[in-house]
Protein: Gamma-glutamyl-gamma-aminobutyrate hydrolase family protein
Amino acid sequence: MTSSPARPLIAIPARFAATTSALRHAAEVNARALIESVWRAGGEPVSLHPADTDVTARLARFDGVLLPGGGDLAPHRYGATDTHDSVYDVDDLQDTFDLQVARRALESGLPLLAVCRGMQVVNVALGGTLEQDMGGPQREHRHLVHPVAIRRGTLLEQATGAEKAEASCYHHQRVDRLGEGLEVTARAADGTPEGLELPGARGWFTAVQWHPEDTAHEDAAQHGLFAGLVRAAR
Structure:
């Protein structure tokens, strides 16, 4: 009897949660929809404990990395001297760990998919900055599905198989100055960068500002992002 090939291991940095009623304590979590999206694409999702340790050694056993969404990065991480009132869920250890994971994955060529906060982490890791709050009475990029235009010839287009996609967004911040070498691969109608890539990167890498896990179970373009990561990780 021939056994099926092992699923590639996809490291997903956990997110700190202040309360989880079922466990009675604070916890480290990842969104179930995100985990299921990786599994559906053929990967083995593994939550990675954020700790101030040798990230290079810890990532060595994995085949790919998914940097997920979460709270905001501390503004001082990208050189800001003030903090907007809307900045929330900042955690110093989380920031340190995520930034190290982003840098090590890019340096080593480990396949990397970055989602929402994850895209912002990559931008900051490469020296870029963020707009701390997009403003606007409607906060058009929170709790909203809106179209994004995808640049042709990008890994994002290859993964989604589309030049336009419906993006499930939940963000009040956006990329301001691009990190070194990064290029915008998708934009919303108002010009907000919704995708980033690093031409010449050692490994497969794409980033989106939206949450593909929200609709990946029914949208082939969104599923394609997870499938692309898993293919690159095999």
Remarks:
- The chain has a mean pLDDT of 95.
- The longest strand covers residues 142-150.
- Residues 51 and 97 are 6 Å apart (CA to CA).
- The chain has six helices and 13 strands.
